[in-house]
User: Fold these one by one.
Assistant:
Number 1:
Amino acid sequence: MISDSKKIVTRFAPSPTGPFHVGAARTALFNFLFTRHHGGVFILRIEDTDSARSKKEYEEDILRGLSWLGIAYDELHRQSERTAEYRGSIERLLRDGTAYVSAEERDGATSDVIRFRNPNQPVTFNDAVRGEITFDTTELKDFVIARSVEEPLYNLAVVIDDGAMRVTHVIRGEDHISNTPRQILLQRALGLPQPIYVHIPLVLAPDRSKLSKRHGATSVSEYRDAGYLPEALVNFLALLGWSPQEGAGDEAAEIMSLGELIAHFDIDKIQKSGAIFNLEKLQWMNRQHIRRLPQEKLEQYVASFMPPDVASLPQYDPPRLARAASLIAERLKTFGDIRTMADAGELTFFFAAPPYPEPHKLAWRTASREETVRHLEEAAALLKNVADRDFIARTITAVLMPYAEEHGRGNVLWPVRYALSGKDRSPDPFTLAAALGKEETLARLSLAREALQK
RNA sequence: GGCCCUAUCGUCUAGCCUGGUCUAGGACAGCGGCUUUUCAAGCCGUUAACCCGGGUUCGAAUCCCGGUGGGGUCACCA
């Protein structure tokens, strides 16, 4: 299907009339993956012919979003900077009679528009994912192609640009299928070659309608701000309407880096029907990518999403954060969850000794205070013997477990955990102690003991 | 409504082109269990689908036809 002799050229052509949408991001991604897989040229073309609706801030949002996702383009063009090109083509169309100026009334005022003289031929094209599609173009009438020689409308601008930029594959949303016959008619009038069309299925909301604002977060920046990893979003979006080769495998096979996606991507495995944007799967995928993050990156993410009230705690410092980071990350779907954890008080104990307003909670079920104090003392004594550099979860477990087994795990482990966190819910005592460090662990153990003895 | 696209577990999908190996596979979610006994995570197990009706064929999820459902599109927007 794809001839090797011809260099592949694709383009992603968003119009900057709103925030960068995840559906658009997926279209960009499919173009990018396909192009990189085949070693072609990927063009970003800003379609800002409608000056009234196009905004610079939206263009910036698109650029920022693409860069965050790791989707790099080879060329950047803006239609607003190509009026000379359009003028030439439109004048030619006018000259040879395939287009004509028509004075028309609109909103009470009369103005000239340029219409295409429709040859009324049936148009058939071969879509790379759907096969042959035929349209009877007579119903299109003499459609308007420009407001003036310097103001082409969407369909014309696209055709001129795709021709000028030698685009070989037009990969875009299914909602553009109905534009295709108009564009083909224009190509024929302009004597331009016809690219290969690849219409990809739409991204749908859970109710099967087009994904829109009322369904929640739809823009790329919202997902970034909520603490999703770009690699997770990219991975998730790639799997919406596409799957890697045969036997789409087990769980691990679905987790792919950008590089792996590029290696596997091709258009023959693109789905024909719309795909629902399933937030739960995105969250799961985000977890998977968080788990694969190198320690250093993980710390950076955790730190950057840490709310100020936690970050200003007395013991909030780099070494402690480094030890707590993976423990915190283990418990979240997105880095934005750090905020929720902080609000629930599940973070403060990492960076400040907890108060013990309810000493009775230190004792496990029916255990007496005296007994609990003894266990706390003994645990502290055992841990004191562990060297600083051996103060890791595995060693701590090995040291504490025999004693806990002997006196009842709950009786020992619960008060130790509670002494360290001051919380009903928290990580287990061993990892917690490791995260806190030896000195702090012993300090909290004795603080808890004092609270009990009061 | 016209035109166009589309149809496998609740969701994303494998299989369909090259009919049998499909008592339809995987993943997310759900459910159940396990654990260094809290919570989370993790691990193990498990429920669940070929839209309907006709054909073709020894045999159809796979091929053909017709319904029905879903979606898109019908601008001097893109």
Number 2:
Amino acid sequence: MGIRETQRETVVDRLAAHMLERGLAQTSLRQLAAAAGVSDRMLLYYFTDKAEILATVMARVAGELALRLADAIPEQPPLKPAELIRRAAAFTTGPDMRRFMRLWVEVVAAASRGEAPFPAIVAQVMAGFRAWVDARMDLPETADREGTAAAIIAIIDGLALVDICSEDDIAPRMAAALGALVAD
Amino acid sequence: MGIRETQRETVVDRLAAHMLERGLAQTSLRQLAAAAGVSDRMLLYYFTDKAEILATVMARVAGELALRLADAIPEQPPLKPAELIRRAAAFTTGPDMRRFMRLWVEVVAAASRGEAPFPAIVAQVMAGFRAWVDARMDLPETADREGTAAAIIAIIDGLALVDICSEDDIAPRMAAALGALVAD
DNA sequence: GACTCCTTGTAGCGACTGCTACATAGTAAC
DNA sequence: GTTACTATGTAGCAGTCGCTACAAGGAGTC
């Protein structure tokens, strides 16, 4: 592996940490370069353009997210929706996961205004969410499996969005109240 | 009312329509000026700076949103959480409201990265949401009223966020599945 | 040493950003 | 008619954006 590839890996690592910390706020080429400890000139030597940088870094972040999700709740046994929601809510509002969810909300907003490469990233992450829920959801044959999975994702993402908006730490109470709202 | 004030009103009207249509994608001064049918020079004659423009326009949008919400579901009689969620979900995923919810997600993201004047706008709109839910929610004395209201808002906002991400029109199925997930 | 290729710094391009200085046209008061 | 104030256009500032041309260092080959 040449210097270029080694440096690429290092840079992606540092930028993933940077974006988890700062969201999409500090993502100009010069700001990214400073965060990665290289010059902006070299950033465009390692990557072809800014979109490729963001796509690569976000793929790394998405990979870490997928690892954590897979570890958080096992696929077996499948859970009824209410229990799945409770466990997922408790997990995603935890201190470690909030950075991911906050970045996720920002990425969705960027995608909604068509900013490359975010629409593609959103499609990929969203597919991962759906598969994750689908693999863990115990649902009667008669129910709408896709619709229910989408609803569960919506609930989890909604918690993150409201969490971002609230200066006081309402997440635990919100998650607890949510647990009471959903029933098997 | 002088020409300046009259023009201000016209500009705010047009910009509110523009931002509901385009979100935060086209909000440079020159783009806003084009949408309002004036020169960017005049925009900064009617308003002191860009933050004041955005704050004024978003206040107008928030006002329209509040009107629609107030009309959609009456305060009396108060509804049990599950029924309130069902009715609010059906309403906010409707064709007219989706523009509002989409813009709302973008505004939350902008606020989360500290971009003026969005944090203040988010605080104001969020307080409106809380009051709206609180006024319509029939909840036992023993329950956590604030936490439950936050959870309901999270569910509604989550529907909007997932709606944005999905190219196919999954909102109705998602709303229906959600209705089955929540119970009185 | 000459040649070649990978790596890196310097410097800057053209486009866009929010914003402003300056001049001018119009209008009302006296 | 002069004065004063409001309203509007022209032009451009300094800064940031993504990106690139160009040159030079460094290492290996012959």
Number 3:
Amino acid sequence: MVRAGRPLRPFRSVRRGVRGMTATPSACAICHVLQRSDWSVMAPAELDRIGAIRKRREYGAGEVIFEAGDDNRGIYCVSVGTVGVRRMDENGNSVLLSLAYPGDTLGYRSFLGGSAHRTSAEALGPAAVCMIDGAILRELFADNPALAAQFLRRAARELEDAHDSLFHNATLSNRARLAQLLVHMMKRHGRDEPDGSRVIELPVSRRDLASMVGARHETVSRIMSRLEEDGIAKFSGRQVRVPRVENLLREVRSSASA
Amino acid sequence: MVRAGRPLRPFRSVRRGVRGMTATPSACAICHVLQRSDWSVMAPAELDRIGAIRKRREYGAGEVIFEAGDDNRGIYCVSVGTVGVRRMDENGNSVLLSLAYPGDTLGYRSFLGGSAHRTSAEALGPAAVCMIDGAILRELFADNPALAAQFLRRAARELEDAHDSLFHNATLSNRARLAQLLVHMMKRHGRDEPDGSRVIELPVSRRDLASMVGARHETVSRIMSRLEEDGIAKFSGRQVRVPRVENLLREVRSSASA
DNA sequence: CGCCAGGTTGATTTCGCTCAAGCAATGTGG
DNA sequence: CCACATTGCTTGAGCGAAATCAACCTGGCG
């Protein structure tokens, strides 16, 4: 395995940024993610209303969007980049619960519950995120039943994902879970190479990868070594080369304890 | 530990029951679970509408309410008893994902997604469940924004629960997870004894208990033995006696890998 | 009665965690 | 520009937890 030292990209700035967040004149109606976002069900007039009050902000890699314990001030819509949803316990163990992509909505759980955030969200690379104020959002929900229905669909899908993870964590081995995570990441972070192999640009560190499969980072490192030995994938820093995808897929099924 | 052979109660009838499901004249408005169900936000007239078309049915222990792969025909509202939500993989490994109680709603995920059920639901003891037809439900959602909001809140809460489980599975040891599950079950299935101890009547088998904590049933059996040795709980069939609840609570915190 | 499902227990092995050392790439202060 | 610290990662040794395989018990049922 190729040694991977400190990452090349800027990493984990400590301070969060509320400053610099401003309402921009450009409306959501022209946002490139509109089609796949939850807001696609809204009428042009309503979109203008959101566009007028939403606050768009750019984030650098590692910058925090909101943090566990913060009061909920509204919900966030990812416009550009990848955002990680994280949770920490009292001992400082952090678990990366899920990844959010352009069009995804963050923070709606604590918004609906009227409670403080229980998770943190941070940009995993350069990203842009819009915030929509809670008060206006409540009006929109009241006015437009389709919006609530849309969010309901989203919640249902996310719940299904969470149950999937729950199920697989209980059933599969660490190796199989890592393989599955790689398969999953191929969809968003993978590209095809001329030689027919597939390359994944991992959006997260080894530690976070480990927390996502529910293992220690050393263990993940070892599993990677063995996957290389078996010719299933080749790891080099945050880059993963998968010569034959079906081999990786077989990994997922194999350890299902017949 | 007291040996627990075959359970005394009727168990796991193979056939499901669609027959016997009839629209009853008694309306939801008089249903004893109305207050804590998702339907509490509805006006009396709307409740009558549901009451007229909902189909109530009684289930015996182990009877299946719906099964993975079935088309969704509506959603289910638990009226009496405890219902288990289960998921199976291709090898027959089954995982009990969650428990549902009176007032809880089942099957809304596949209803919203318009897809087939991906989980099965079964009565864990004598139970009664009402089904509300999908077509009428869609109208109700369109007419009453508060209903969608209510379901949204429910989905948010369930999502949070799922994330909690995900998080704890990644962090805690098997022993701590079992302790936590027992604590959780105390709320619904526990009763206080005159001597100050607390007795839990487990609604599920050892195997299902094991699947809920993500361990083999042998392992759960061994953990139980050790919990008895340590005087934390006493297991006898499906009955668990906890002399001092705080000791069990300490179990949960302890193995959090300082 | 024998069978079966559910449960317990033991022996063995495998997996994954902890602790610890060390490397690579980067950043920093003198 | 160099010594040095820091961060992220890899690797090894040892150990403990849990899975696997297998035997056996218990109580209900056809």
Number 4:
Amino acid sequence: MERVKLIDVARAAGVHPGTASRALSPEAGSLVSAETARRVVRAAERLGYVPNTVARGLRTARSFLIGMVVPDVTNPLFPPMVRGAEQVLSRAGFTLVLTDTDNDAETERRQVEQLRARGTDGFLIATARWEDALVQQLADAGVPAVLVNRNSSPHRLPYVGGDERTGVAEAVEHLVTLGHRSIVHLAGPQDTSTGRERASAFRHALRQHGLPVGRGQVRTCAAYSEQAGLDACTRLLSSSVEFTAILAGNDLIALGALTALAGAGRRCPDDVSVVGFNDLPLVDKLTPALTTVTLPLHEMGALSAQILLGAIDEPGRTGPVAQSLLGIKLAVRGSTGPARP
Amino acid sequence: MERVKLIDVARAAGVHPGTASRALSPEAGSLVSAETARRVVRAAERLGYVPNTVARGLRTARSFLIGMVVPDVTNPLFPPMVRGAEQVLSRAGFTLVLTDTDNDAETERRQVEQLRARGTDGFLIATARWEDALVQQLADAGVPAVLVNRNSSPHRLPYVGGDERTGVAEAVEHLVTLGHRSIVHLAGPQDTSTGRERASAFRHALRQHGLPVGRGQVRTCAAYSEQAGLDACTRLLSSSVEFTAILAGNDLIALGALTALAGAGRRCPDDVSVVGFNDLPLVDKLTPALTTVTLPLHEMGALSAQILLGAIDEPGRTGPVAQSLLGIKLAVRGSTGPARP
DNA sequence: TGTGCGTGCACAAACGATTGCAGCCAACTT
DNA sequence: AAGTTGGCTGCAATCGTTTGTGCACGCACA
């Protein structure tokens, strides 16, 4: 039941452990004769040798561990990204460690510290705030890290996200084509890049279509949550602002808005059209099915992992950091319809 | 920027590294004088010493790593369990490594192997099949492991799940109370404990109510998926079996069934009542909102982690293994209604 | 004052792999 | 045929901690 170790393999092959190590390593494989290498490899297979990652990590100062930090695994936005990242990483021999910060900065700090004590080789950060101490710290320390989905203000780390501006532009275009002239944006929190970007893109898109951007037409929600969406929409309804369409900061906000609208007797899409963001599972099964902007979450996870691997491989690089935006699509469904004349 | 290590702390405190180690370890803390201990601790704090987990792991043969194996993170069933487990584990100083097997046995084997090479201290398995080679293997090897959500046939490992039988009983009771006499079960795959257990409990519940269990009244779906539910329900509709209610193996199957019913012009709940299992996010927002059995997923994750920690602490134990069932509740919503006379 | 005992610390050997260095042998050059 | 080169392999140090062992010192007791 004892784990077989390198020295056992070496003995079985009649060589020194050092030689066995080289024979099994693709890197230094050329330093050993083909004949010996074959003998060692065969012995290793026969004995079922599995190298001890911990021992190797101690010597090489690499852990082959990647930490991925998400605010809440329970939010369906993240699992696809995790999956994409894991596939790329595990193919490259890395193990992904997922940690859930529960949206709490202190928890996040602790988790990352613990991971760093493990000698984690790099981080995938999906929790970035617009101004983020942790992100700064990682950048300062020169720890390989990539931001996913949410960016952070001084672009010091690579970032992978969706092309928010285009997504918003398409959504607005869609609404305008349907005849809507009074569109309101229920924006996400402005301490996230997505919240800021979408709001800014919204204003820009309106101007492009020659529509005025009035006061109270962009309303910031306290969080990316259903409750926050409900609150914001309720306030909107009790204000004097007229509107026939809502662009929500994400699907949860859209759901809250739908609830608020229903409560106020406004029908969707007959009275008000609603567009969401993210295309969460099941929003296509609602009545009406939610029109929403879909992000390539899986690809975002995969690409961020690839970029991270690149950064790990050349630690000395000081070139410009990449900000990658992936294509986005609008899924037109039942929650948007022609504006009432 | 160099990481400060134990020897630095020792030097700063004017003691030998061995002594410093003991001073910092609560275990052996009594082997060193209070005065020295204080000096060492202060030095450690001042220098910002963070012990190297890898080196420690090499010496102690413990990694403080727990692997959690799920078939698909993207399935909303799992994230809450992951979350529950992570909270317990991280409090105990362990790091949770999540791996997604993509429902593939070979991937699963590879992942677990990789984790074992890391000296992972224990496993949380959420992928168990009724007959499962991996589970057998872990049990044989004496690796601490706990099954979550799905059990495996010879109960050799501890298991934590929901009280399926009671859940099914309540669902059937609910339907019978509504006047339904012809109830069909679209069962999940029979190579999973949940699929078997729910089907068996369904038969039992019918008998309890004096209802006959006819042929074709329990139909097995090929997978826990929407497509499988749609297929099974389509076949059901084209058979001669009469029914006014469906108990689905889980929510996805229920969704598929709803689609099939709608396609056949049968309305829910007017013509057919449907009950699901799991209470996935948003199923309460559908029209009609899905009546479903809710599992305490978070608690399942937390409890399984606790049991695992216990197993790790006393490796020698050979007592009986615990099979823990947590309470379950029926969420009555719009998809169930009175049977038509 | 000598023996005995206990406390507190230093010493060094692990843990299992990687890797710079040195040595050996064979082959090739001149 | 002697010298040189170069390809393989063995040796031993090393990564940072933990922990068994033993020494030294101080105190108490006879």
